[in-house]
TrEMBL record:
Localisation: Membrane
SUPFAM superfamilies: DsbB-like (SSF158442), YWTD domain (SSF63825)
GO molecular function: protein-disulfide reductase activity
A single Gene Ontology CC term: membrane
Name of this protein: Disulphide bond formation protein DsbB
Coiled coil: none
Keyword entries, A-Z: Membrane, Transmembrane, Transmembrane helix
Taxonomy of the source species: Bacteria, Pseudomonadati, Pseudomonadota, Gammaproteobacteria, Alteromonadales
Organism from which the protein derives: Shewanella halifaxensis (strain HAW-EB4)
Membrane topology, from the record: Multi-pass membrane protein
Alphabetical list of Gene3D superfamilies matching this protein: DsbB-like (1.20.1550.10)
One of the protein's GO biological processes: protein folding
Length: 483
């Protein structure tokens, strides 16, 4: 590739970038249709302007490594900005979006396309250079195309300066997250500093910077207690077999098969006899296979021999106890274990209100054929939500905010459904709560004495079985069911 060809290609690329996405966004969508860029739009537009400016430098001074490096860094930043902007909207229901759409695609998605093309263009341009970059001669002059590119660049930059200053304002104003329509009426324009980031908000993970629960380190909090009707009467206590490895975090019982299922935070699933004295089968879930499942949080029978096991982040696996299954036939699903367990399904539950909260429980409503989960509240996402998920297609059926008369939301580590109510085990309050399923209201509470780390519960023959978890010494305490 000779110098003249390179110059023309780069000039056309710079002209196309500044005239089409930047020019259309500013002049047509902005001045023509009244669209005002949000903060993220300004970031994306600025990155495009910088790429165009770098291309003009290449036109003027030739293709040099420092310009190539600057172009790639700026394009990667622009690509990130596009992904950052799109991530808040791209997975919404069909047709939904933010701001105007062009050919059915919203502008922040076009940003990803534009910067992907820029990077591909830069890569192809480098390949065409062969083993040596084209050097610019001292005698070369700017062509008409070069002059048109620079003048178009300056005109569009001028329009952007006017739009930025009048609609966004000078420093320290940085724009709006949800901007109003563009106007030159000073009484209607909004200059805002509300979106400056603070140190407390800075995180590489953004809204997902929620601390994972540590089931061994949960603490009691009297502010989460509900006025109690009384105290549960202790009936019996059973120590789980010493072969159970790790901290037990979930327990469930099925009266038809008379089987118990117990899970631990380090991904073991156990099936036990009705007396909790013998392990009938066990497997360790492979956390890295398919949908990532780790830090198991709960288990519930959804059939006579099948259970759903959930992780704290709502990924789940369904397994079934079947003495005829050989462990060697389950390679790829389980890391270790015995015969007698097969995997039925592995996937993830998707929620809305509970999206940014972890869970420590799962229950099964046989009447509605739904799984129930209650969120763990967090300082950043102080939600107390019950999610109901279909047992047929594993999609979200409904969500509701639980009404509770307490100073703070409790950590619910166990849930069991009985007819028109759900029993919720409050770890932080050391209580058994009764929630009316129709109104999603906690209507009663009973204190539970003598517990250290209540991690799960189930109902067994009219009694509460509460799992008091300590690694190496997991116990199940039985109590009379509250009326």
């Amino acid at each position: 590739m000779n110098e003249l060809t390179l110059n023309r290609i780069v000039s056309l690329a710079a002209l196309a970038l500044i005239a089409l996405p930047v020019g259309i966004a500013c002049i047509i969508l902005g001045f023509g249709m009244g669209d005002t860029p949000c903060i993220l739009c300004w970031q994306e537009r600025t990155a495009m302007v910088l790429v165009s400016l770098i291309a003009i430098f290449i036109m003027r001074y030739g293709l040099k490594p420092k310009y190539i490096g600057a172009l790639i860094i700026t394009a990667v930043y622009g690509l990130w900005a596009g992904y950052r902007h799109s991530s808040a909207h791209i997975l919404r229901d069909i047709g939904q979006g933010f701001g105007p759409a062009i050919f059915g695609v919203h502008t922040y998605v076009w940003v990803i396309v534009v910067f992907a093309i820029i990077l591909l263009f830069a890569g192809v341009l480098m390949l065409l250079q062969g083993d040596k970059l084209v050097e610019k001669s001292d005698s070369s002059e700017w062509s008409l195309l070069n002059k048109i590119t620079v003048n178009v660049f300056l005109v569009i930059i001028g329009f952007n300066i006017v739009q930025a200053f009048t609609q966004t304002g000078p420093f320290p104003y940085i724009g709006q997250s949800d901007p109003v329509r563009m106007t030159f009426d000073s009484e209607k324009t909004i200059w805002s500093t509300a979106n400056w980031p603070t140190l407390s908000k800075l995180s590489a993970r953004g809204a997902y910077s929620i601390e994972k629960p540590d089931f061994a380190a949960m603490t009691k909090n009297d502010a989460t207690k509900v006025t109690a009707n009384g105290e549960l009467t202790a009936l019996d206590s059973v120590t789980l077999p010493a072969e159970i490895f790790g901290l037990a975090t979930g327990i469930s019982y099925n009266p038809q098969s008379q089987l118990f299922a117990v899970v631990t935070s380090n991904n073991w699933v156990y099936f036990l006899n009705a007396e909790l004295t013998e392990i009938l089968a066990k497997v360790q879930i492979d956390a890295a296979f398919s949908a990532e499942i780790s830090n198991l949080a709960g288990v519930t029978f959804d059939g006579e021999t099948s259970v759903l096991v959930t992780a704290d982040h709502k990924s789940f696996v369904r397994v079934e106890y079947d003495p005829s299954v050989k462990f060697d036939d389950t390679y790829g699903r389980f890391v270790e274990g015995t015969d007698g367990v097969r995997e039925l399904k592995r996937s993830r539950f998707a929620t809305v209100r509970a999206k940014y909260n972890y869970v420590a429980n799962v229950g099964w409503d046989a009447n509605t054929q739904e799984y129930l989960m209650v969120t763990l509240p967090d300082l950043k996402r102080n939600n107390f939500v019950v999610s109901r998920l279909s047992g047929k297609d594993y999609e979200l059926n409904s969500e509701a905010i639980i009404s509770i008369d307490a100073q703070a939301y409790p950590n619910i580590t166990g849930i069991s459904v009985a007819d028109d109510k759900a029993y919720l085990l409050s770890h932080s309050g050391q209580q058994m709560l009764t929630m009316d399923l129709a109104s999603n209201t906690v209507v009663a509470a009973s204190d539970i004495a003598g517990l250290t780390n209540p991690q799960a519960m189930t109902v067994v023959n009219g009694e509460f079985a509460v799992l008091d978890a300590t690694e190496g010494n997991n116990r199940v305490n039985f109590y009379q069911v509250q009326q």
